[in-house]
Amino acid sequence: MPRLILLAQFLLIFLLAAATHAQQATPAHVATPNEGDFTLHDFHFKSGEALSELRMHYYTFGKLAKDSNGKATNAVLILHGTSGSGRQFLAPKFAAVLFGPGQLLDVSRYFVILPDNIGHGKSSKPSDSLRAHFPQYDYDDMVAAQHELLQKGLGVNHLRLILGTSMGCMHSWVWGETYPDFTDALMPLACLPVQIAGRNRIWRKMVIEGIRQDPDWKNGDYTAEPRAALQILADFLLIAGSAPLVMQKNVPTPDEADKYLDDYVKRVTADLDANDFLYAVSASRNYDPAPDLDKITAPVMFINSADDFINPPELGIAEREIKKVKNGRFVLLPISNQTHGHGTHIDAAVWQQHLKELLGQTQARH
């Protein structure tokens, strides 16, 4: 009997470990991505600062195809959100829904590019060495670096699709205005195409000041992460990214809610760097695509969810601004058991039918 109990305990531990690994690994029916770095030399930022070398890390699936004129025909660029990385799109609820055989972005047909943007993932960022002396990048700089990675690093001169989530959603609008002929279609998910103001600006400003006012931040030259600053970051990320309906369902008692918060803070702060996050949030400071939305020529499928704390539907901004886009459509996903606030953008099953519509709509254009 003791041996059986011991065997059962070992089996349980093994199964839990396997389940955890499965959640993090690329789904079995999707090929393992290629991973690489490309160095941008003498990169100049809008702030007037420059880096002699700017590293752009990326993941790719599939092989690039070009037509007889040398134009890329099957490249798809997918852009992550603040504090994220290209690796987040390897999660089963995204990759297993879109990248597999016969699926909408089947990687045997498409060349899928998942970059780590400036300040994120394995790309150049403040925490590498420069800390608070890292150039003050903004969204225009980030898109310019993505463009250079595509053209010089990966040989991509045209995109079939740009799909962006959260910060990547905002990058999508910048792409559409800055390089209007570079892509066949745009799919921004979970953002608004206007300057960051109102409550959205206020919570970002609160996070920035929370970092700067922590005595342990030491003007960015800390040797150990400022604990109070990380707590503030985790708290705001939880509130901004969650939704009341699903949270009430998942943590219906005080004890469960308290445990969820404790576990969440430990998990999130383990990977956070105060300087990296400060820079990432501050990068939105001069974002404002609204005046030039009429310059976007590619068809746009713009999607938000009704339970998004960061982009609340009662503002009416999305419905107003999409009218400026020549070939744009806005879809508001109603609150349901499938939506879960701002993070709905990573759950492809909820909105994949709209991606299918966009790809079908732009097939003739392509």
The CATH class designation of the largest domain is: Alpha Beta
**What is the share of helical residues?**
25-40%
| Percent in strands | 15-25%
Helix segment tally: 11
Helices and strands: which structural class? alpha/beta
What's the total number of strands?
8
Provide mean pLDDT, rounded.
Answer: 92
CATH superfamily of the largest domain: Alpha/Beta hydrolase fold, catalytic domain
Distance between the termini: 67 Å
- Taking pLDDT < 50 over at least 5 consecutive residues as the criterion, the unreliable ranges are 1-24
Shape: globular
As a whole number of angstroms, the C-alpha radius of gyration is: 21 Å
Largest sheet: 8 strands, mixed
* CATH fold-type name of the largest domain: Rossmann fold
Strand order of the largest sheet: 1-2-4-3-5-6-7-8
CATH architecture title of the largest domain? 3-Layer(aba) Sandwich
The number of distinct structural domains comes to: 2
Order of helices and strands: HEEEHEHEHEHHHHHEHEH
Give your account of this protein's structure.
This protein is of the alpha/beta class and 366 residues long. It folds into two domains: 27-195 and 289-361, 3-Layer(aba) Sandwich (Rossmann fold); 200-280, Rna Polymerase Sigma Factor, Chain: A (Orthogonal Bundle), CATH 1.10.1740. Helix content is 38%, strand content 15%. It is built from eleven helices and eight strands. The chain has helices at 2-24, 92-98, 139-153, 167-178, 198-212, 227-241, 244-250, 254-269, 274-282, 317-321, 348-361, and strands at residues 34-44, 50-61, 75-79, 111-116, 161-165, 186-189, 300-305, 328-333. It has an eight-stranded mixed beta sheet with strand order 1-2-4-3-5-6-7-8, with helices on both faces. Strand 3 (75-79), helix 2 (92-98) and strand 4 (111-116) form a beta-alpha-beta unit. Helix 5 (198-212) packs antiparallel against helix 9 (274-282). The protein is globular and about 60 Å long. The termini are far apart. Mean pLDDT is 92; it is low at 1-24.
